[in-house]
């Protein structure tokens, strides 16, 4: 019997390390993860940051960086681009035998529609990106992936109460009882990882993802929900719709319903969904990556 490998055993979140890259197991998933320390970037002076931008950013990316006014946001944005570029470059060397320098990878964001803001790259891969505290984390693979990482911090009471409503500590299923014991911040992050897989993020109600269980190996199970487990989106986002039970992820900038069955991948915090029928499970989370979502949405 093959022993499962959790993300906790594979990922190092160390703010003192400027860059950390790994190829996640099991190997058939072909996922590459890169972590960039935002904390180390904050320690850099203006000249060092300018040198990094000149070294790694394309002309279009440099133009976008210039539109960011807040110094803190500029550093976080740069960290995210560095993480994505290094993940794509390392993935290419590992799986394609392609020696492509990180600086040549161009990162763009979907400009509109339900997936507006979702990062895309000029390579035959899908990417996911998240920022939290001292880290920017990027995941790269041959199929769609959603990733979310947040600090373990107290959640707003209203949101925590709504999340608790879908849990029953006396449920007959052991997986459902474990879900009730799962930290509320981690439950929220699992929901957002699923939404990020579809490219929606918080443009639709997180209650459309209803968690149903937490498995002993760290995976969690879910089903399309009824929208009652989280505050409704703002009026301008109301057209985003719900997760349907059939169909495929919409193309960038398009509408429509989305669904899919989830894979058996065992990477906590990463929603790794190939988009084909299979087991309706998605990786769960680990104590080292517990999260609490800031309510203010930040662009990718």
TrEMBL record:
* Region entry Disordered, spans: 223-300
SUPFAM superfamilies reported in the protein's UniProt record: 4'-phosphopantetheinyl transferase
Composition bias, Basic residues: 288-300
Q: Which UniProt keywords apply?
A: Transferase
Transferase in keyword set: yes
Every copy of the 4'-phosphopantetheinyl transferase domain together lies at 144-207
The molecular function GO annotations come to: holo-[acyl-carrier-protein] synthase activity; magnesium ion binding
Q: What Pfam families does this protein map onto?
A: ACPS
Biased-composition ranges, Low complexity, are 274-287
Q: What is this protein called?
A: 4'-phosphopantetheinyl transferase domain-containing protein
């Amino acid at each position: 019997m093959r022993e499962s490998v959790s993300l906790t055993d594979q990922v190092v979140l160390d703010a003192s390390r400027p860059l950390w890259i790994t190829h996640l197991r099991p190997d058939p998933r072909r996922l590459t993860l890169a972590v960039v320390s935002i904390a180390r970037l904050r320690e850099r002076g203006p000249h060092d940051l300018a040198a990094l931008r000149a070294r790694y950013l394309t002309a279009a990316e440099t133009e976008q960086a210039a539109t960011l006014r807040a110094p803190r946001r500029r550093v976080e944005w740069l960290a995210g681009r560095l993480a994505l570029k290094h993940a794509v470059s390392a993935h290419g060397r590992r799986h394609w035998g392609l020696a492509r320098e990180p600086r040549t990878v161009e990162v763009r964001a979907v400009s509109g529609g339900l997936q507006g803001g979702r990062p895309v790259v000029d390579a035959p891969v899908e990417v996911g990106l998240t920022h939290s505290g001292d880290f920017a984390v990027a995941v790269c693979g041959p199929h769609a992936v959603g990733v979310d990482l947040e600090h373990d911090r107290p959640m707003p009471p209203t949101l925590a109460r709504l999340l608790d409503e879908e849990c029953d500590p006396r449920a007959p299923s052991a997986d459902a009882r474990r879900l009730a014991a799962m930290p509320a911040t981690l439950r929220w992050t699992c929901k957002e990882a699923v939404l990020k897989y579809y490219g929606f993020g918080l443009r639709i109600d997180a209650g459309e993802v209803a968690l149903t269980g937490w498995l002993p190996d760290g995976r969690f199970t879910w089903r399309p929900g009824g929208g009652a487990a989280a505050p409704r989106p703002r009026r301008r986002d109301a057209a985003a719709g719900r997760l349907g039970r059939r169909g495929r992820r919409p193309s960038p900038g398009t509408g429509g319903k989305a669904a899919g069955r989830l894979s058996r991948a065992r990477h906590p915090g990463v929603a790794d969904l190939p988009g084909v029928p299979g087991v309706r499970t998605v990786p769960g989370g680990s104590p080292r990556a517990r999260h609490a979502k800031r309510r203010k949405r930040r662009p990718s």
